[in-house]
Amino acid sequence: MFRKQFKLNVREENAFRDICIFLITIYVEAWFKCPSAIEAPYNDFIFLKKLIEYPDKAFSETATHKFCGHLWYLAPEIIALSFFDFRVPTEIKIKMVEALKSTQNNDDTIKKIVLSKEGIKTFIKKELHEFVSPETVNFFSRFKISADFIDFHPDN
What we know:
Elements: H1 10-33, H2 40-53, H3 57-67, H4 90-103, H5 117-123, H6 134-142
């Protein structure tokens, strides 16, 4: 659109094209979905998987490294928002409930997810229910939300 105003050499034009392709195929969708807090954990999880699988490894590694510093929506307490996300499959919600029930007497606490380069490959093989921990229950008590709903099927 601005080619006549900005003279780019071949290398710059190729780099600009690569950035545009990345933005359009990966980033724009995540950007438009980010205002919904309830959808944030699932969005971040999907976005990270897309970043890792992105074919241009230079973009993939750089963006993944940067995004790994922003995984607070996958933290054990915030992952509770996923119980209210209609896009999370029922079978995953059932596993989340099972994980929540099985961890209530567990003392393992994780405050923040920190990923190394090596840990990313293991991380993307996980599912949402694997982020549920004893800390997840704190979300409900913090906001005075009854957690009785976990005794019902997620479709209800």
